[in-house]
Design goal:
Layout lengths: L1 E5 L8 E2 L3 H14 L9 E12 L2 E10 L1 H4 L7 E5 L4 E5 L3
Antiparallel strand pairs: 1-6, 2-3, 2-6, 3-4, 4-5
């Protein structure tokens, strides 16, 4: 089950989905070709910090580790992306 939380409220340990753009561009196709379940997309937040603002306003920088399923035999690599603090982000919650 998922709920949407403002990026600024994400905490380390939260289980989130990667940026929608990445999922739509290549991750979903890779998921299917590797025969992995949808849950393999879920990442664990390591940190959320303030990023440098621009003329559009402030940013948060999110760092997260992919699931062991996604990483497979390779060493997992930290993912980093920017999002506006008020952007609602999908978070996996236990039902």
């Amino acid at each position: 089950m998922t709920r949407r939380v403002p990026v600024a409220q994400l905490m380390p340990g939260a289980r989130v989905y990667p940026p929608a753009r990445e999922v739509s561009l290549w991750m979903r196709r890779d998921l299917l070709s590797r025969g992995l379940p949808e849950s393999a997309l879920i990442m664990t937040v390591v940190s959320v910090r303030d990023g440098a603002p621009d003329k559009g306003g402030p940013w948060c920088v999110v760092e997260a580790m992919p699931s062991a399923e996604w990483s497979g035999d390779h060493a997992p690599r930290m993912w980093t992306w920017k999002a506006r603090p008020s952007k609602l982000w999908p978070v996996e919650v236990d039902s």
